[in-house]
């Protein structure tokens, strides 16, 4: 057979993604030759799609349902010959294949998964736990892995490693360390994959033959996803298909791919034709999470495990299309989950944290500056719930609107309407005269509308809030959000400061979404229309005087870039530890048709610059509730030197 010419490694693979496939083939029960042809054809097709790992079901060379025929020498010999033929037929593919067969070792029969690559059998993994109840009676034919007394098996004149403790590492494809368990192994109290992951396996494969009964499919999905989460690994599960169905049982061909608790994809079930699930798993992300997890690191060890190394060569094809969903808004609940439930949970976390602070401080009031913008609106809604949870009267909510040089009629009007709708006190205190006096005191010309001009207003507002909190025996509730903390988009010792920052764990894209949820949900009757208008209001600090036509001269996103981009950058940098090149590449795919490469690169460079420069603000940020997996509190989730001088964008 003529060797096919491999293409250069794709950007996708270089940035840490490995393409894997879980396959349920159109099986011919008991006909090994036909099954070899089917498996080889599918392996070749998937290799040309860039797959580095292809997992076929349990006993896929013979079929799982052969029963007492496993005791016949003819079927076993055919399976061994078929394994050699499959290895030879796929020798030119830069892909690892996993197939199943019955194998006789020292007068015992084992249900094994064979790992093939580049024309040779790298190793054989016997099944550890054999189901032997209800419709399953594997102990009738097979012995469990612990009865194995050999470390190698001679196949076609070559010694092949055999054992449940084998790991397979591709030296030329970073991140591919493969561990294998078989079907029932996953359903046990401590699956073998747990130990394989601790020994270094990043990809866990499970060739399976699970029968289908009512309710089993969702349980299987949860099981696969949970094991991938516990192991901080990718999990590739291949179920036997409908062609195995015989006598009293039905097989559905359920194929699943999961990564660190997330189900990336699954196949159509109950098809007689070949079905597969092909996805890109992020082994770089998995390595990052394992590096951060002290509990994983402390348990990790490879004593007793054998690591088999091999080379695959360059992948076939040069496809940089990513076979997984990259959401442009990673902080916003997806349509596939119960959005209302997620929003309610976030709201409860925020409100409970603030209520605890109110109770501990024995506060008589909760003081908040209400601008009519996104952040202060969400903070107010949370504050109302917190006051109720703390057992305080609604009159304890004390809101203050402080119009200044850039305040618009729209925001001030919305603040007034919202307070009225919620039946809470709203005081209006203009900062104009105080700031004029302050400029005079420090000798600052009001024609010089620079950082001093803007920050003086922010600090004046904070002073008012702090002093009123002192006067009324209360605490100041801060409104700054997670995106502003990341970018340092706040005035140090101005809106940067409070007694409790209730939005500190909520990024800007989620703030807007939560307000929209409040408008349709818990506050729909009282303030739905007002909240919808606030959600549509341009983001601005309102610190520069309005134009002659009373329009805004200052929009935050014109200066620092779109918050949806910055939130995307923040998520992938902090949560996944991704570098600049990978973030740019992912953003180009997530925002295709909306932002070009140049725009993404421009705002990413600004993100990294501001993120590094403004750690000193985060180092002294007030307490606030952690809401999601990304947080920047220096007391818990993010520690870096305030004087970091490196280039995060390199």
Which key features would you list for this structure?
single chain, 650 residues, alpha/beta, Nitrilase/N-carbamoyl-D-aminoacid amidohydrolase, Rossmann fold, 2 domains, seven-stranded mixed beta sheet, six-stranded mixed beta sheet, 20 helices, 20 strands
Number of strands: 20
CATH superfamily of the largest domain: Carbon-nitrogen hydrolase
Low-confidence stretches: 1-8
Mean pLDDT: 92
- First and last CA, distance: 45 Å
Could you walk me through the main structural features you see in this protein, from its secondary elements to its overall organization?
The structure is a single chain. The protein has 650 residues and is α/β, with parallel strands linked by helices. It has two domains: 13-310, Nitrilase/N-carbamoyl-D-aminoacid amidohydrolase (4-Layer Sandwich), CATH 3.60.110.10; 339-556, HUPs (Rossmann fold). Helices cover 37% and strands 17% of the residues. It is built from 20 helices and 20 strands. The strands form four sheets. The chain has a seven-stranded mixed β-sheet with strand order 13-12-11-10-9-8-15, with helices on one face. The longest helix is centred in the middle third of the chain and has 22 residues, at 339-360. The chain starts with 10 loop residues before the first helix and ends in a 32-residue tail after the last helix. 48% of the residues are buried. The model is unreliable at 1-8 (pLDDT under 50).
